[in-house]
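Quick check before the chapter quiz. The format below is the same one you will see on the exam, so make sure you can read both the input and the output lines.
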Amino acid sequence: MDGSFASSKKRKVVLTKVLMYTTGFCPYCVITKRLFDDLGVPYNEVRIDLDPSKRRTMMEICQRQTVPQVFVGDRHIGGCDDTQDALRSGHLKVWLEEVGIHV
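Here is the expected output.
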């Protein structure tokens, strides 16, 4: 099997998920996780407090140090306030639907 096909297929799978960088002690992370839980939207959580290399990766990707940092597909949403604003404006629903998650 061609390696580029496997890589592109793997990338597509990764990009169709909700990804959230968090810590175990951040109240804004709890609020944001609850938002997705209430919507019934599954997400992958990356705990940067458990692995410092994950914090570096997060900072390289989004140029931010704070958590949570939320991604829908390959779109960086931002933090807790950004995610709540996107929900209120209706943008979050559109972005979720773009990656095949219907709420």
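If your answer matched, good. Strands lie at 18-22, 44-47, 69-72, 75-78.
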